[in-house]
Design a protein that fits this description.
Blueprint lengths: L7 E5 L4 H12 L3 E6 L2 H6 L6 H5 L1 E5 L5 H15 L4 E4 L16 H28 L5 E5 L16 H21 L5 E7 L21 H12 L9 E4 L7
Parallel strand pairs: 1-2, 1-4, 2-3, 4-5, 5-6, 6-7
Helix pairs in contact: 1-7, 4-5, 5-6
Family: Belongs to the short-chain dehydrogenases/reductases (SDR) family.
Protein name: Dehydrogenase
InterPro entries: NAD(P)-bd_dom_sf, Sc_DH/Rdtase_CS, SDR_fam
Length: 246
Amino acid sequence: MDRWTGRVAVVTGASSGIGAAVVKSLANAGMIVIGLARRVERAEELRQQLSEQAAQRLHAIRCDVTREEDIVDAFDQIEQQYGGVDVLINNAGIARSGINLFTPGNADPLRQVLDTNVMGVVLCSREAFQSMKRRSVDGHIVQVNSVVGHTVPAFASFNIYPASKFAVTALTESMRHELRIEGTRIKVTSISPGLVRTEAVPSELKTGQTPILEPEDIADAVLYVLGTPPRVQVHELTIRPVGEMM
């Protein structure tokens, strides 16, 4: 991680769960971290969990990744105040429970999932890439994907969520090719966790004997892929809790 010391990392969905854990890990590793979140006050409160030095490296900007104007404004602000983006962690993601693909009137919640999980990734990556390209930075884009972006479990209804994560899997490969064709050495990595203890997971799955990961496990994976030598690109990293059935 030494080559990233003092460089700028942007983390979407930074207010809780995996995003919060990644923000803290990157700040502790010496990076200047910009947390993008709708609940910006919660991202700012993460400073209280850091050392004084690391807390000074953490900043937060209000941003709803379903709104292109929010994304463009946030990245413009990052360019002006911090010089640009060196690392992007596309973590923001949602799922909608209580409906299936055939539920009448389901268009709005399903569209929210696609706008967050797919278009949010595309638009944030676009803005980060433009910043990296302008400054000739060999940066890194990391997608927080899911194991259901590779196979759909048969024991529950996940409605459109797996489709959104399959899209992230395809986007990662498409970005790799586009970055190569552009002649850059910018890396792109997909990290696909199994079940993680976050606010999005129902409480009954976070108790008892259900195998589950902690957000810090995913933050450790982010540090690992960022810490690889410039010649190495970890394209896909799958992380499951021991004993998981999915």
